[in-house]
Amino acid sequence: MKRRDFLKGCLIGGAAASLGVPSKSWAVGSFEGYPDAMGVLVDTTRCIGCRSCEAACNKEQKLPEPDVPFDDTSVFKEHRRTTEKAYTVVNRYEAKDGQKPPYRKMQCNHCNEPGCLTSCFVNAYTKTGEGAVIYDAKVCVGCRTCMVACPFNIPAYSYSSAFAPVVKKCIFCYHTRLKFGKPPACVEICPREALTFGLRFDLIKMGHERIRETPDRYVDHIYGEKELGGTSWLYLSRIPPEQIGLDETVGNEPIISNVKEFLGMVPMVLTIWPALFSGIHLLATRNKDHGDAHHNHSEQEDGKK
Amino acid sequence: MKKLIASGAKTVDSPQKSPGRNWTIMEKLFLGLTLQQYIGQAIRNPLNWIFGIIFAIGIPIILGRFLFGLSWVTHSSNDYPWGLFLAFGLFGMVPLSSSGFQLGTACEVFGRHDLEPIERLGLLNGLLGYFFAVVYLMIDLGQPWRLPYPMAVAFGPASVLFLVAWHVSTYLSVQIAEVSVSFFEWIGFPIGIRAIRKITLGLTVSGIILSTLHQGALGALFTYAPGKVHPLWYSSSFQWIHFFVSSIPGGLCMVIAVSTIASNTMSWRFDKRFRDSLDRITISLAKGASMGLATYLTIKLLSIAHDNKWGYFMTGYGQWYLVEIMIGVIVPMFLLAYAIHHNKVTLIRFGAFLVVFGIFLNRLNTAYITFNWKLSYREIPHWREVAISITVYSIYIVVYRFIVYRLPIFYQWRTQEELAPAYATETETEIEAKALKNAEAAAS
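Predict the joint structure of the above. Result:
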């Protein structure tokens, strides 16, 4: 290669890098979701705790028989979480001011910038254009970092399987329904229309309208609109979200924002360290006969010098 | 072993058993003892009996983990995905293995030849620590046979763990190359030694890069869980710095701790150079460690101030945090400073053990004990989980001992030419040749 060609190459490469990199880094952290992403608006003021969504999910996803039948309300005595056998659970929370106790359905919230996805080192998770966060069991190694990274504690793991343990979580009925534009099984079965399926942007508008029309029915907040960079599943509530088990301390930044300070440091170390330490090496061994330094008796040599 | 040495048994420290006759590999494996002598010394060592009992219980449990699944051995759950294997085995052992890159850097890059007698121990300690951290990881992974996937099948390059996977595997090969010099000397493969020597500087510098990044990356892994790690152990900006900086005194003190154990149990393996310089080197390492501790303490407090977390000190977790900092950082820091000043090597060694304990405690606290502090229940490890952890650590010790018994780590391999004088002095001609060379170098 001629010198001129080399320089030309450098220039072009540098220009490409300077053009390409910033636009990408600006995009990270301000991603507001795919324009056609679907979502579900959960109106917890309408939920009566019938658990039919749990039953529908169980059937749709072909999950094993539950330990307790779906019409048994004794499960409300404690707060349950999602498991490998149940991708969604409904919990009952404490009643306020003589009102009926509120219920809330829990499942994967399908974040716009999912913690599970960004933490996965084999890219097993995908945020589809339809808004679902799906999981590829074929590449999963089982490190369970996604479970650590999920701020909602949603992914479960089939620990009891010896040879093919995998992560189990709600996938928005992607393969059987969402892909074909159909609402997930839980939404379809809900007898109270507590769950509304639609474009995420429309749902946010709808949520704000409901709050405006009946302000005493709702707290003026849609949980999931901004939390953790936005989620596909959104919640309306009569009482503050934390009283129905929605963590309000999660903040509005996606999980990956916390990790960026470290990730930003990586290229710096990769570039500076080799030069820095080779330089130090040259300085440190400047007046020494370094060729022999690895000799077995270097200590004696040093002593003699 | 001491008795055997006293009774005149000769151990392998050079290629030749007697002039004109080389040791065979079998003889080298048996340390130059006869089979009977070897088995005799192994049986007389009470530690081997303890290991025997541990293995008898632990190895079947490890096999059981792969037959019956993780739920048979751990209490790892959907809320607590990471248990003792990772908190103790991975997060605890990796920082204590930073000795490899530190001593490599000091000797090869900074030209600190006074530390050279212990360089190989530092490298070996690094290699074994990493290797067994990976063993713990393999036991914990759901499908360990897929461990190479991030290298070959599916890539998640934006993930911190992706960086850890690549760096740890690259660094393991770097460390194997660095330690292989001892192995090549031992089996007698001079071409290999020369080849590695040529790339030593490159290996060392890549070791620094890889270590900085993955020691930090292990800390950065916890920045994925800002709501789960207790605020006192969490800091978005400082997490990776905490993990990296604490690994510096951790690695140095681990080398001091190992050399202390070795000098109490297997000083027969030390040659004169190592025995004579150990105290001096221990003090040098302790100096580095105490400076590392001071830096660590400063940035620990800085991160508390940065996020204004002083209020947490009033809680139970806050007091537990203070216990960790006191035992693992402040007390050993003053101990080391005092001991260095007054040349009290025994005290330094005690301080080094405290630091090692402190590192384990810190990693256990971050990953396990205070993890999920908002949840109402704490996870207590399954007894089989504890048993496996102890078993793997015992295997680690046995392998460690197996290697330092044999390879020239604590002693120098005497090559054919210098066999005659045991602790060779240079001959006239050699000195002359060197002076000539120096003059040439100065002239150019």
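The domain at 45-413 of chain B is CATH 1.20.1630.10 (Formate dehydrogenase/DMSO reductase fold).
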